[in-house]
């Protein structure tokens, strides 16, 4: 009498290996989707930060470097300088969870007339009070800019 072994255990092992391969592939795909979602959110934050920085810069340009008038127009906080570096404006946009800081830099003079004002703009992400996130180490967006202080007269 000869005994024939059942092939059921081999079939079961093959199915288990297939399930593990598919689970591994699904885990890799899930990581790719999470990574792409994070990239998309980061891009959106950078785009919004650039838009807010541009808004602040254009307001400062419109007021020809008068930081007090620009702060009043934007509804921001004017931070007077303690040295000769120039005043700063700090704007907080709660709806975007962003803070824009513009620091007036050096003033270029021609003779005794001030002609151009430079500034450094940084946009920081602010964490909500309930989010538990730490303060960011570096700004989301930075740009250096300059504007004309007064209308130049034709000679």
State the gist of this model.
With 155 residues, this protein is α+β, with helices and mostly antiparallel strands.
Summarize the topology:
Elements: H1 8-62, H2 67-74, E1 77-79, E2 88-93, E3 98-110, E4 113-125, E5 141-148
Antiparallel strand pairs: 1-2, 2-3, 3-4, 4-5
Helix pairs in contact: 1-2
Radius of gyration: 29 Å
Beta-strand segment tally: 5
Please list the strands of the largest sheet in the order they lie side by side: 1-2-3-4-5
The global form is rod-shaped
Task: Spell out the helices and strands N to C.
Answer: HHEEEEE
The class by helix and strand makeup works out as alpha+beta
* Number of continuous helical runs: 2
Q: pLDDT below 50 for ≥5 consecutive residues: which ranges?
A: none
Instruction: Report the sheet-strand fraction.
Output: 25-35%
**Helical proportion, percent range:** 40-55%
Can you summarize the main beta sheet?
5 strands, antiparallel
Oligomerization category of the chains in this entry? single chain
What is the straight-line distance between the termini?
119 Å
Mean pLDDT: 85
Structure commentary:
With 155 residues, the protein is α+β, with helices and mostly antiparallel strands. The protein contains two helices and five strands, in the order ααβββββ. The longest helix has 55 residues, at 8-62. A hairpin with a 4-residue loop joins β2 and β3 (98-110). The N and C termini lie far apart (119 Å). It has helices at residues 8-62, 67-74, and strands at residues 77-79, 88-93, 98-110, 113-125, 141-148. A five-stranded antiparallel beta sheet has the order 1-2-3-4-5, with helices on one face. The model has no long low-confidence stretch (mean pLDDT 85).
